[in-house]
Write a structure and sequence with these properties.
Elements lengths: L1 H26 L37 E8 L12 H9 L2 E11 L2 E10 L5 H14 L3 E3 L7 E6 L8 E9 L2 E9 L2 H18 L6
Antiparallel strand pairs: 1-2, 2-3, 3-7, 4-5, 5-6, 6-7
Helix pairs in contact: 2-3
């Protein structure tokens, strides 16, 4: 009687083990392989502290009243920022998996700083080059800057926004492509505001380092 009961228990355990093994082979350890290509590393734990040591966001706060301060995946920015769908898809195709933006307005002048973080498997220089080429094709002209590693472009009176002057710059820092942009109707004010914001951003978070 006892032997029969023992055999029944063993059989039950074998069935449960087989089900568990089949589940593991079908679904893995619970992680979703679909998102593997979008992975962005998190900081390692510091030996003496239980929580991750996260560096500060590499973005300064532009002057003016904040109209947007958000972060998320590229799709979170569709229709909710100055980025066009074309630009968002360009970023995705070139490896960007996370984005962050701080945008302000002050007396007709818009200032913004952006962070485009690429997947671990991608090179941020590819995303930077794609953005720079996009604005070059749009008529933006190269402008000089004192900051090494930073690409600056300017456009005045674009076809779709007459009487607007815009500056946009891009540079790589770690796994991020960082953007500084300023635009508005008063060209001298826009240029001065852009130079100040660019100096503030790059002096605090230079290109190439992290």
């Amino acid at each position: 009687m006892r032997a029969g009961r023992a055999v029944g228990v063993v059989c039950t355990l074998l069935v449960l083990l087989a089900v568990a093994l089949a589940g593991y082979l079908a679904w893995g350890d619970g992680s979703n392989p679909v998102y593997t290509k979008y992975h962005v590393s998190t900081p390692d734990l510091e030996p003496r502290r239980p929580e991750p040591v996260t560096p500060p966001d590499p973005l300064v706060r532009p002057a003016g009243s904040i109209v947007m301060d958000r972060d998320g995946r590229p799709g979170d920015f569709f229709g909710k920022s100055s980025l066009t769908k074309r630009e968002v898809w360009l970023l995705v195709r070139n490896g960007v998996a996370q984005m962050q933006a701080i945008i302000t307005k002050d007396r007709g002048t818009t200032r913004a700083v952006w962070r485009f973080t690429v997947r671990d498997s991608d090179d941020p220089r590819r995303a930077r080059d794609a953005l720079d080429e996009l604005y070059e094709r749009g008529g933006y002209q190269v402008r000089p800057t004192r900051h090494p590693g930073v690409r600056v472009r300017r456009i005045a009176n674009p076809a779709d926004q007459r009487d607007i002057t815009a500056y946009r710059s891009h540079y790589v820092r770690g796994r991020d492509v960082l953007r500084v942009e300023v635009y508005g109707a008063n060209a001298p004010v826009v240029e001065s505001a852009f130079r100040r914001l660019l100096d503030k951003q790059v002096d605090a978070f230079p290109a190439g380092r992290r």
